[in-house]
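Lecture notes, structural biology module. Today: joint structure prediction for complexes of two components.
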Amino acid sequence: MDTSLSRRGLLRAGATAALAAPLLAACGRTPAADTADGDKTFTLYWNAGHGYDAYAKVVKKFEADHGITVNWQKFQWPDLQTKLTADMQAGTVPDLVEDDGSGWPITYATSGDALALDDFIAKDGEKVGFPHDWQDNALRNVQYKGKTYGVPLHLTCNLLFYNKTMFADAGLRAAPSTWDEFLSAARKLTHGRQYGVALNSDFGYAPPWILQNGAKYWDPASRQAMTPAGKATEALAFQHDLIHRYKVSPVPVASSDYEGPEKLFVANRAAMMLSGPWDFAPIKQAAPKLDFGLALPLSHTTRATNFAGSGVFIPAKARHPDLAWDLITRLTALDVELAATAETGMTMPRKSWADSAKVKADPLVGAVAKALAYGQSWPNGVAATGKATQLSDAWKSAYESTILSNGGAAKAVDGFRAAAAKLVGG
Amino acid sequence: MVATLERRAAPAVRRRGSPMRRRQARTAFAFLAPALVFFALLFFYPLGNEFVTSLFAGTRADQFAGLGNYTRAFGDGQIRHAFAVTLQYGLGALVLSVVLGLALAVILNQKLRGRAVFRGILLVPYLTSIAIVGLLWRNILDPQVGILNRLLVTAGLPEQQWLGDHPLATLIGITVWQQTGYVTVLFLAGLQGIPDLYYEAAAVDGASVWRRFRHVTLPLLAPTTLFVSIIGVISSLQEFALPYLVTGGGPAGATDLFVFRVYQTSFSFRDFGYASALSYLLLIVILVLSVVQLKVGQRNAT
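The predicted structure, tokenised, for the full assembly:
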């Protein structure tokens, strides 16, 4: 048998493989980005916890109406951010993205990676009710230099969850309304292995306290972070004292999730926690018989809480911006909002949603709708600096040094303000 | 002398010109080609691309910065902190893994009943996905809802708060738990390669168990120890999953390992040029440490 021929063949095969490899690699990119005109795939990035049936029905109808396949990819927030950042860098972006409400549309707008929606709004805004039917503060994190880069999808806020049975057992007739009442109730409710409250290891749960003491995370006018510093320090110190001085809350441990308080709440180990409508479904699932109520955000110098929620935006290099806008209008329609609320208890940004009789009649959803009146924007436009994530990282460290590691609040706030000044001036 | 050189040189000339030799070389290249293509495309090309990226700044890495990203790293307090934390983590994990792995290997090298089963069990943590390991330990160690504290309370012992009080040591402990089985197997292979003759000779000379271990076992295990050390240092310096899964790098940066910081720099801060430079600096550190370990190991072996 003449083997030399087969060796040549093998070499040829190797050379062919070498030449084909880059082509094959190119074929492995995001489907939405690698096809020419006539592309029939629409890529949608979504939060893993928000794949509601109400939205699935909308997506199905959208597919049928346009003869297109929606590649609906769902991620946890950090993974979504990682994937999106890599996509932006590679230029292979999805058509529509759900953002975490912290200002991603502005962050990406500052680098030219988010699409301004003003032309769409001029054409369809009146018809779909955007932005006039959206609560004003909800729009704070989607507008940059006079243009709109995103549409709020959910509008939630942090408020006080309390265990009605534990309150009754402790002789407490009403939920606390001020910091003093809160501390007093927490002390009465703490005994044995039961805590009055469970504070969160996630720094994203600190904003209500800071806002309730009249401080802001970011002041665009003075370009200062955590100001006035004294008020911010007092608020951080109060949280610290709940854990380390009064011992009415367990010490949270550093973690990559935020579910610790909810686990204690459903296990009847904590009588109160700060959370929002995103915890309705997990509580119902873990402890269907738990009798809990929602109180308005607490008051100290002012009654306040921070808005949370999510939104949607279109990347600048999206293949199907027109279709993306069409899907936005469908996902944010009032009937879809009401269906999603009925399904999960999630709260929404439309004024007409808040005015709905169904919303007002639901004790939990209605309570959130009332609390939204006290909502403030925590980022307050910080994304426009282009350094929002670096600031957030510095604040995380400051929060953890005080709340988790029992450090001084003043040192943490001063350190954070110095880091912020270094990052964005002011 | 001249004749000898000629005799040695002649076959070499013949080998270069031999058609058989050329065919063999072509065949060898053909077999190597897939691996070469694989590494060129998926390793060396990204490596080169990353170096180019490290010379640029901005969210799109499109502003030429020269070596600015490299010099910036030396003045960056967060990076120095992350590097120091990583060194502590690497050193702790390596030393404990080697000591425990060696001790277990020595025990398992004895003729014990069920040692094959025990060897298998020891490898299970190493074979388990790091994602599962991270989540498993996070749930075990959670001070409020974790299994460990429930057991401690049941046994009348005080509760632990290791993730809060000693987060870095806790991550080291998890790493040791996962790595020790693998290290044990490597040492076991090394131990089984030591001829009984040496131990018998030492016993005849009246050497105690400790002296046999000290003067026979340890020196003859030097190549294995060197291998384990180099692999251990490399994997420790590159650790990412545990801070990402268990502590989120906290509290207050206490478990902010270097690669986790690189991840934050690229995917949270969108500073790809700087993140690429940091990755290159880590590569240089790993190369230097590996070479130093290799040299020290070779000198000791000599």
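Point to remember: Confidence is low (pLDDT under 50) at residues 1-36 of chain A.
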